[in-house]
Amino acid sequence: MEDQEFDLSVTDGVPPDELADYEVWRVRVQGTNISEKTLLATDYLNHFNEIVMLIEMIPDMPDMLEECQIWQPKTYAEHFRDSGFSDKELAIEAYGHVPSKFRAPFEDTIAQAHQVIAHTLERVATDIQGGDPDKLRADCQTSVAMIHRIIQVANGIIHGAAHVMEQGEIDLYLCDADNVG
């Protein structure tokens, strides 16, 4: 009985024209590392964890900026195509069936992550050229904290949470980060 109540809450907000397809796909992903609730997989967030680790190294190893600049955003499908994720083909296929109630905020959040990462790499390059290791360390720490926050929001969406970061929060961070120091 509890599962039925849970299922009803999961389908709240799914447009009627997406509901039948959503239910079929929820069954298809059962028993995998793909969320039955959203049809999304947290493995995609590993792509962002990789750049976070690299940015964290920059204050002690400024040459790591080159590695960071090699890193490129990947779409959900690109990440899974390149990964060793056991259900990668299913994850790629399921993504096309993610209900808009989850897909739109997820894609918005991923776009915010890409925006913050690009801005971070520009700012860090400027910091390195400026030769102020304290500013470099502070900017890396602030940026990593913001990227972690965005990853947490994306993780929440993957697990069915409704909270997203408002673009204004990102804009404020970008503006504040530019005006620090």
- N to C succession of SSEs: HHHHHHHHH
Briefly note the structural class of the backbone: mainly alpha
Low confidence ranges:
1-6
Number of strands: 0
Helix content estimate? over 70%
* Count of DSSP-assigned helices: 9
- The fraction of residues in strands falls at under 5%
Give average pLDDT, whole number: 88
Overall radius of gyration: 19 Å
General shape: elongated
Main sheet properties: none
Distance between the termini: 57 Å
Query: What is the subunit organization of this protein?
Result: single chain
Describe the structure.
The chain has helices at residues 2-11, 16-28, 46-57, 64-70, 76-82, 88-95, 100-130, 133-158, 167-179. Helices cover 70% and strands 0% of the residues. By secondary structure, the chain is mainly alpha-helical. Helix 3 runs antiparallel to helix 4 (64-70).
Summarize it:
This protein is mainly alpha-helical. Helices cover 70% and strands 0% of the residues. It has helices at 2-11, 16-28, 46-57, 64-70, 76-82, 88-95, 100-130, 133-158, 167-179.
Describe the secondary structure blueprint for this structure.
Blueprint: H1 2-11, H2 16-28, H3 46-57, H4 64-70, H5 76-82, H6 88-95, H7 100-130, H8 133-158, H9 167-179
Helix pairs in contact: 3-4, 3-8, 5-6, 7-8, 7-9
Which descriptors apply to this entry?
mainly alpha; disordered N terminus; 181 residues; 70% helix
